[in-house]
Amino acid sequence: MIFKSITVLLEVLYLSAFWLFIVTAIVFLRKTTLSPIPLFRYPAEFKLKKEDISFKSLDGLSLKGWVFTHDVGVKPWLILCHGLETHRSDLLEIASGLYDEGFNILLFDFRGHGESEGRVTSFGWLERLDLLGALVYLSGQKMLTAERVGVVGFSMGAAVALMVANEDERIAAVVADGSYTNCFEGFKVWLSQRPILNKLRFIILPYFSWVYRMRMGISPNKVNPNESHPKAHCAKFFIGGSKDAVCPVEQTEALFAMAREPKKLWIVNNAGHTDAYQKDSKTYTHKVAQFMREHL
After folding, report:
1. Which one of 1, 173, 240, 258 has the minimum C-beta count within 10 Å?
2. CATH class belonging to 41-182+223-295
3. CA angle 16, 20, 26 (to 5 degrees)
4. 131 close to 81: Cβ distance less than 8 angstroms
């Protein structure tokens, strides 16, 4: 009788683990396989004269974007990087303000977003190859001034900017707004906000790590701005919101603590995830522009 009860219990545990694995895999696949959201704003709305561009990521995907250049004088370049499940048109208002401050701007869609090729996101790892492609594009067009560029990233785009800064010395300055410390920690935060799933975190977290490794070829713990960016010699400006529930302020503070000088930190009171600009667009634009002028 005892043997039979143990057998039944093991079967229940096995089936529970099996179906939990299936659910975790489905959720992960749904989050990493995207249906691109169409662009909904265009440069003309902000009186920006655009040039449509197309370039290749380092692994050969076709990426779409815009550049906004000044007609007179040599101006420094900024590349703006959007977050997960958004696209370049979400950054047009910020881009317009920075253009008015005297910068040339490159906006592009990461893989699987907007008008760019691809259907899969890796939450930052493969997207590194997209930003590196943008740098190659600017250099190939002989657009960069003294081969130095600034990158302004938001959420996933901020994490990408921090990781690539350690790989490419053309990046002289990074503004990281709402970056995670590493991909695995980001998933743990996401899980903690779902009470039912969070009770099973001891099973879900190893499954997530395994599925990510199988799909992307790397552990999510290795998708780690907090480990890679301290090696980069560029200037860094970290922006966070005191009420950020996606990448909590503690993560922004941890990134700042690990950074080399020169570095700067700005925590915006009562701001949520990447909401600092909405709280005070003029102050935001001024601070970012001033930081970039100091380091480009």
Report:
1. 1
2. alpha beta
3. 150
4. yes
Q: Of 214, 189, 222, nearest to 29 (Cα)?
A: 214
Distance CA 267, CA 239 (A): 6
Query: Distance between CA atoms of 9 and 257, rounded to whole angstroms?
Result: 48
Structure-model confidence comparison of residues 242 and 9, the more confident one: 242
Confidence of residue 12 (pLDDT cuts 50, 70, 90): very low
Question: How far are the Cα atoms of 41, 46, 62, 259, 286 from residue 58, in angstroms, in the given order?
Answer: 28, 31, 10, 27, 33
DSSP output for 253-284: HHHHHHPPSSEEEEEETT--TT-HHHH-HHHH
Instruction: For strands 51-56 and 62-68, give the pairing.
Output: antiparallel
* Per-domain residue ranges of the chain: 1-33+183-222, 41-182+223-295
Looking at residues 284-296, what average pLDDT do you find? 97
Cα(79)–Cα(160) distance, integer angstroms: 12
Q: Using CA atoms in the order 184, 185, 186, 190, what is the torsion angle rounded to 10 degrees? A: 100
**44 token code pair:** 């003309």
The DSSP symbol for 120 reads B
Average pLDDT, the chain: 88
Task: Give pLDDT, residue 9.
Answer: 46
Give CA angle at 45 (39, 51), nearest 5°: 70
The 10s digit of each residue's pLDDT in 99-120 is 999 999 999 999 999 999 998 8
Find residue 151's DSSP bridge partners.
79, 174
Q: Are 65 and 138 in contact (CB under 8 A)?
A: no
DSSP letter string over 83-127? -TT--GGGGHHHHHHHHHTT-EEEEEPPTTSTTSS-SB--TTTTH
| Secondary-structure percent of the chain, ordered helix, strand, coil, rounded to 5 | 50, 20, 35
Paired tokens of 106: 């490159």
